[in-house]
Design brief:
The complex is a heterodimer. Chain A contains 16 helices and two strands. Chain A is mainly α. Chain A is globular. In chain B, the strands form six sheets. Chain B has a six-stranded mixed beta sheet with strand order 6-9-10-3-11-12, with helices on both faces. Classes of the chains: A mainly alpha, B alpha/beta.
Amino acid sequence: MSSVAPARSDKSEASPPSRGVADRIFSVNLRQNGIYVAFALIVALFAILTHGDLLSPENMSNVLVQNSYILILAIGMILIIIAGHIDLSVGSVVAVTGAISAVLMVNHHMAWPLAVVLTLIAGAIIGAWQGYWIAYFEIPAFIVTLAGMLVFRALTLTVLGNQGIGPFPDQVRTLANGFLPGYFGNVGLGALGGADLFTLILGVIAVVGIVGTQWRARQGRAGYGQKVEALPLFVVKMALAALVVMFIVVQLARFKNLPVVLIILTVLVLGYTLVTTRAVFGRHVYAIGGNLQAARLSGIKTKSVVFWLFVNMGVLAALAGVIFAGRLNQAGPTAGTNFELDSIAAAFIGGAAVQGGVGKVVGAITGGLIMAVINNGMSLLGAPSERVMLIKGLVLLAAVAFDIWTKRRAGASR
Amino acid sequence: MTDDAILRMSGITKTFPGVKALQDVNLVVRRGEIHAICGENGAGKSTLMKVLSGVYPHGSYEGEIHFDGELCRFSGIRDSEKHGIVIIHQELALSPYLSIAENIFLGNERVHRGLIDWNKTNADAAELLARVGLDENPVTPAMDLGVGKQQLVEIAKALSKDVRLLILDEPTAALNDSDSEHLLDLLRGLRDQGITCVIISHKLNEIKAIADSTTILRDGRTIETLDMEKDLVTEDRIISGMVGRDLSHRYPEHEPNIGEELLRIEDWTVRSPTQHERLVVSGANLMVRRGEIVGLAGLMGAGRTELAMSVFGRSYGVGITGRIYKDGKEIRVKSVRDAIRHGIAYATEDRKRYGLNLIEDIKRNISTAGLRKLAKRGWVNENEEAHVAERYRKNMNIKAPTVAAVTGKLSGGNQQKVVLSKWMFTDPDVLILDEPTRGIDVGAKYEIYSIINEMADQGKAVLVISSELPELLGICDRIYAMSAGRITGEVSRAEATPERLMQYMTRYDEEQVVS
């Protein structure tokens, strides 16, 4: 690329018009969409190595269900990391909230919806406790949540009396492990065999919804006289998205319909994506992570924003706690071990910056899925767990190194 | 060439990207004298001292340094220290948790067979402390000392390095009167012991009291060197050297349309957040009218930024007392949000640290402070946001292809326009602009001045803090001067001269003129 251009930049919008279009699209892809490209490549790699087993209906369903709680944690974690903080306690919070839900449901025979709500409130209180010390007492989040990691693990053991509590009511197990019933029966898909009609209809609705909202956003931008991407490019992107969604949906429909937890996850991803991109609160999170002092001097209530981020993390951890306990059908003393590391890794692989201010919910989910696919693909290949760990560690390092490298390259022209 | 000069710097030119900080500067310091260096902020004093002490190593500047008749090419600060040149920076560099003795011998430890000899360390330190007249135990941690005593420890540290030329950058800026007096006495004592001193100071009364000769810098050039005794130098003489430059067409024409009083600050006092006993601003009164551009002049450390930030929602300082009136009514401004709600905006002197989110684009920076105006029930209308930002980009002439350009990549002038846009979007009545043209090239400065004029023409009250006197004289309708936390003078545009302002700005004695 022509390195003498006065204002070289990575974002297409900022590029001087003199630069080649192909060059521009490439550089956009690398920095902003590199993670999605990497994900596609990793999926393709393992699909080939496992002779298609990775993408089989049953395996895809398993990967999503087995990793749902990490993905839920990753949503809360990416927000905290965008704001420039960290949360090391989520694994222990998952354990203690799972234990609380078990005590309420199993020992006290409380109705499960009430028990779940109370558990989420407990998560909020835990988050408020940590958020207070971090936001208002100004102790670094690393320290507060490190303490929390110990404290909440200890509380887990106390609540459980050092033993597992179970079994959970069926409804809670369905939340974690179950699938939607097929309301309209199956339809034949030729060579693919039978598939659940209801799931297929939901998939079509999802595709229509995605294309529709994207089209409306595009029209809205055009209406304000802003630049929009060329129509052919837009069509190609939408077609690609539709293809991916329909592929996943068809595969799931061929197995046991939609996992309940996938629906929960989808709602969370959509909701939090909206909050991070469109809500005032979300904007404040980015502003705080990008430059805390500038945010403060712009009238943003920096302390309150950070406090609520941790409350939010507590609630999401409690949700993950219930789902995880439901999945194992037991709340155990070692539940959630290393979950904090997995969710932090998901956020960073997904493009969060170590200094804060950067990151996307979808990125964190993709980061989590990258690790999930590596985990799953390697175990399908029969690789020993220590090798899986090794690869995951190196992937994390590579992702952050790549991020810093692109930034440094971009910074050199400053 | 044997003469009585210990130091000759000749033809020193130092260039930073886009700026010539020093241009053909000459400095001759005689052996055993106290030599003062004077100049406005940004005149190049500190840069010159950094060249001398090797902070900017040989090769990064042009010109020659002769020390003690020998041509020197310092590769770094340790190299210059080996020759006996020691610099004490304005911001003291003691390690707070280490003891006095440890600080004195930091990087130069008293060692016996690879281990630190604590007895010798403390004994030697005690001896040095006696030399600088500091009655403290060498094992006391540095953080337990006041600023004045820390300054003495710095000097003791310099003495431990067998200093021959001691450079002090604004040594008394943070000191009270008695500490300053003690320090000046100490410097006289050192001179009698044969140590040459170069002292940078804004306090002309001090220079007059202590210096044997004075070199004046202006805009990166040497103006003159005065022999304090022979030339019968007065403070006015120094001031005219510091400010004497022409005011040509660097400022847009402006016919002010001044209305009623809009903002009044009464009896404003602010304490330092780190040293609660120190008054950073004391008893300040000022007033700005609608459509008026008011300047706030002062040298570094005068308390201008602290005054502005404490008014802007108590963003600086502790123990703040005083009253703020807007349109004649007293208002309570306890947070930045309060300030914004009452129509007060403050554009910081340090854009990069306090003004912008450099990793975000132009539109998001412009919308930060007024985001609520773009939102309904907590949801931001991004299209409207881009529309608003685009309007500012055009009106303010921000040079970027689109409002989605990242602010970190813009030039200083364009970044400043983004900051000003951000505050204009909050629709303020009062704009406090802190060094609005710092680090901006001449062309962009003119544009910023035009924007400031436009703000005033819209009926806003504008308070401009600037360290460049010509700028204040060029754009302001009225100017306050601050010194040591007090407002020391107020002049209208008609009566303002650089000399008069500089007199107010350098006033440190008891007889304060409070307007």
